[in-house]
Amino acid sequence: MRIEKSNTKDIDEIFRLYELATAFQKTKNCVLWPPFSRAMVATEIEEGRQFKLLINNEIACVWAIAFADPLIWKEKNKEAAIYLHRIATSPGFRGNNLVNTIVTWAKIYAKNHQKDYIRMDTVGENLGLIKHYKACGFYFLGLSKLKTTTGLPAHYANAVVSLFEMGVD
């Protein structure tokens, strides 16, 4: 098992995993991911902010990070944090606690980049994800109504988000 930065050759697989994640979301009756912009993902790859977890040289999971997320995190955005986005796991690897692997990686990554927190959000009050992310060590900060969503993916429009945070220490 290893974690690497994604590259442009991975884009089709990243989008396949996004489509599979959206199909899985449909079975859970939660807010669905909209189609994401290929240009957005290409920019994340170019900036070194899109990652993949490989198991036996197969992409098991992908995610992106950001170093700022002011529309979602408002005043807390001033604090030194990395923000995890769009964790998508290949169906054959679900149930293997890959979020815990990402958390372990993120703590090291955050420390190496002088960040104090790891943060993530999910749209809506998804009780299953809240329970899962708490079990992975995140503190559930509660729900937040987004006021401005211009520039965010479509599923954030008029949304309430669940906010999660953990210290890097």
Overview of the structural elements:
- This protein has 169 residues and is an alpha+beta fold.
- It has a single domain, classed as 3-Layer(aba) Sandwich (Aminopeptidase).
- Helix content is 32%, strand content 30%.
- The chain has five helices and seven strands; from the N terminus they run βααββαβαβαββ.
- It has helices at 11-27, 38-46, 70-73, 98-112, 127-135; strands spanning 2-5, 50-55, 58-66, 81-89, 117-123, 139-145, 160-167.
- It has a seven-stranded mixed sheet with strand order 1-2-3-4-5-7-6.
- Helix 4 links the parallel strand 4 and strand 5.
- The longest helix has 17 residues, at 11-27.
- The mean pLDDT is 95.
Topology, pairings included?
Layout: E1 2-5, H1 11-27, H2 38-46, E2 50-55, E3 58-66, H3 70-73, E4 81-89, H4 98-112, E5 117-123, H5 127-135, E6 139-145, E7 160-167
Parallel strand pairs: 4-5
Antiparallel strand pairs: 1-2, 2-3, 3-4, 5-7, 6-7
Content of β-strand: 25-35%
In percent, how helical is the residue content?
25-40%
Amino-to-carboxy terminus distance: 24 Å
Radius of gyration: 15 Å
Low-confidence stretches: none
What overall geometry do the principal axes of the alpha carbons give? Answer: globular
Which properties best describe this structure?
single chain; 169 residues; Aminopeptidase; 5 helices; 32% helix
Task: Write a short abstract of this structure.
This protein is α+β, with helices and mostly antiparallel strands.
